[in-house]
Amino acid sequence: MLITFKCRAAPDVVMLENLAHYLVGIVGKRLGERGVITHDEVGIAITKLESAITTDKQERAEHDGHFHEGEEGHEPHEIPPGLAQRAYPFLDMLRAAQKENADIVWGL
Predict the structure, then answer these.
(1) pTM (2 decimals)?
(2) Shortest CA distance to 45 belongs to which of 21, 25, 17, 18?
(3) Taking the C-alpha atoms of 96, 15, 84 and 37 in order, what is their torsion angle to the nearest 10 degrees?
(4) What is the domain extent for residue 60?
(5) Is 42 a domain residue?
(6) CB of 92 closer than 8 Å to CB of 10
(7) 81-89: long-range contacts (C-beta < 8 A, 24 or more apart)?
(8) Does residue 51 fall inside a structural domain?
(9) List of E strands, 30-74
(10) Model pLDDT for residues 58-96, shown as the tens digit of each residue
(11) Which of 23, 66, 86, 93 is the most buried (most CB within 10 A)?
(12) Number of domain units in the chain
């Protein structure tokens, strides 16, 4: 199922429900049928999401050696996208909402 986040300050952001559930949870909300991140909550949401992205980048850097890229005897494979890549459109929307004092809604 797809979830569409709407904000008057930014283009709509559409994502799969499992990613939406994860990102909304990071910022301290629950993904229900309908929801809102008010303009008063946006600053805290940005801080929480940026912190989670930083932590994810650190953990990925620590585990980078486990991918064995280019080593003999190991099949090459893609490194899965990190939280920064998956969360960027939502984080961009949060930042735009902060600049415009706008709410972010979903399920309408």
Answers:
(1) 0.83
(2) 25
(3) 40
(4) 2-64+80-106
(5) yes
(6) yes
(7) 82/53, 82/56, 82/57, 83/52, 83/53, 83/56, 83/57, 84/53, 84/56, 84/57, 86/19, 86/23, 87/23, 87/49, 87/52, 87/53, 89/13, 89/15
(8) yes
(9) 35-37
(10) 888 876 655 555 556 656 556 678 898 999 999 999 999
(11) 23
(12) 1
Strands (E), the chain: 2-7, 10-16, 35-37, 104-106
Q: Listing from the earlier edge strand, what are the strands of the sheet with 35-37? A: 10-16, 2-7, 104-106, 35-37
User: Is 36 inside any structural domain?
Assistant: yes
Using alpha carbons, list the distances in angstroms from residue 62 to 56, 65, 67, 82: 10, 7, 11, 13
Question: Phi and psi of 72, rounded to 5°?
Answer: -65, 140
- pLDDT bucket at 11, cuts 50 / 70 / 90: very high
Higher-pLDDT residue of 108, 47 = 47
Instruction: Note whether 99 and 43 are within 8 A (CB).
Output: no
